[in-house]
Write a structure and sequence with these properties.
The complex is a heterodimer of chains A (about 200) and B (about 150).
Chain A (H helix, E strand, L loop, with lengths): L1 H24 L19 E2 L6 E10 L3 E6 L2 E6 L5 E3 L16 E8 L3 E10 L5 E12 L3 E5 L5 E5 L5 E3 L11 E8 L6 E8 L3
Parallel strand pairs in A: 4-7, 5-7, 11-13
Antiparallel strand pairs in A: 1-2, 2-3, 2-6, 3-4, 6-7, 8-9, 8-12, 9-10, 12-13
Chain B lengths: L1 H21 L52 E5 L4 E3 L3 E8 L4 E4 L2 E2 L1 E2 L4 E7 L3 E10 L5 E10 L2
Parallel strand pairs in B: 2-9
Antiparallel strand pairs in B: 1-3, 3-7, 4-5, 4-8, 6-7, 8-9
The chains are: A mainly beta (about 200), B alpha+beta (about 150).
């Protein structure tokens, strides 16, 4: 009789264990979109935590207060508000009017059902705004300007500032006759080239 | 005898109960819906060769001769991934370049080691940022890569 009771208890225990395993193995329900929060369109990119949103792609078309960006995942509509800021290299105080079809852009902001309401939009330049020029120093006034002659015989003048970095392995500054690479950016307001760095090459 | 049958029946029921528990792990995992919006894999830089200066023999009267051409100028970006979203304002830009090349990132000189690896730390603005990486050799040949990165704290 005791053996029967023991066996029955074992069976019940076995069934309970099996049942608990079945329940724990059930796949979890898919996450539901919180009420009021729209589903993000496929072209909207998120970070790994899905907390940050952005759009990268090429401007396909423009309307009065929106533009469509072709991303690798599809088209995304980016809405513009009065608060949207624009950053375009070589362009001071850029506006939405300066964004052109075909531009490569990045935008961040608040996700919508069709895309994003942009907080900031940046346009990647077709060519870099930074230039490297190699030549022989013909004139050098520390902190003011440097004139070089390139291999084609042309001369180029660059404005120097206190922030211009000079890199010389001999730590002897810059002298006329040195061969240098000048890293410069064009100032959009003055159209002058300002040297951000001068690299003196060994002789 | 009855006891043995009873126990065997119990074991059978127990095994049947376990079967569905094992089944869900058998099929291969399906793609997560997030995969369509996940950040893309690393994109290599798209350097464009822009020869800004001519051959060194163009000006033989130069007081200082320019070095002979060695390996073609190349630039490869390792970090950051183009078109990525980052949560830190401090961003390290790194990559590899032809030996003895000069590398600038947004106009700032990067440190290039003797093996051609370079790196520089940038401070990003909030929102989208344009990162221009330019490399040049002693002849004035130039290659570049333009990256877009969004910083959201």
């Amino acid at each position: 009789m005791n053996r029967k009771i023991f066996s029955a208890l074992m069976l019940v225990a076995w069934l309970l264990v099996s049942l608990s395993v079945v329940v724990s193995a059930d796949p979890p329900d898919p996450p539901k979109t919180p009420p009021g929060k729209p589903n993000s369109p496929p072209g909207l990119q998120k970070d790994k935590d899905s907390k940050r949103h952005g759009v990268f792609g090429t401007v396909k078309s423009k309307a009065s207060s929106t533009f469509t960006v072709t991303t690798k995942q599809g088209d995304v509509i980016v809405a513009i508000t009065n608060q949207t800021r624009f950053h375009i290299p070589r362009k001071k105080d850029a506006t939405f009017a300066d964004v052109q079809v075909g531009d490569r852009v990045a935008a961040n902001g608040t996700p919508t059902e069709t895309g994003l309401t942009a907080k900031k939009v940046s346009v990647a330049p077709g060519k870099p705004t930074t230039q490297h020029r190699v030549g022989i120093v013909k004139e050098y006034i520390a902190g003011k300007k440097i004139v070089i002659e390139d291999v084609k015989g042309g001369t180029a003048t660059f404005t120097l500032t206190a922030q211009t970095e000079i890199r010389n392995p001999k730590a002897s500054g810059v002298a006329v006759g040195d061969r240098v690479t000048i890293v410069s950016r064009r100032d959009p307001s003055s159209e002058e080239f300002t040297a951000t760095a001068i690299v003196v090459h060994p002789k | 005898m009855r006891l043995k049958i009873f126990c065997a029946f119990g074991v059978l029921i127990g095994l049947l109960g376990c079967a569905p528990a094992i089944a869900p792990s058998a099929p291969p995992p399906t793609a997560s819906p997030r995969a369509t919006i996940a950040m893309q894999p690393t994109i290599e830089s798209r350097p464009t060769v822009t020869p800004t200066l001519g051959a060194p023999t163009a000006r033989p009267q130069q007081t200082q001769s320019l070095p002979a051409t060695s390996a073609p100028l190349t630039l490869k970006i390792i970090s950051p991934v183009d078109e990525s979203i980052v949560e830190s304002a401090d961003l390290v830009v790194s990559g590899t370049v032809t030996l003895n090349a000069v590398v600038s990132v947004n106009g700032l000189l990067a440190q290039v080691d003797p093996t051609g690896k370079f790196h520089i730390q940038l401070k990003l603005d909030e929102g989208p940022n344009v990162i221009e990486v330019v490399a040049s050799d002693a002849l004035g040949n130039q290659v570049d890569a333009i990256l877009l990165v969004i910083y959201e704290p």
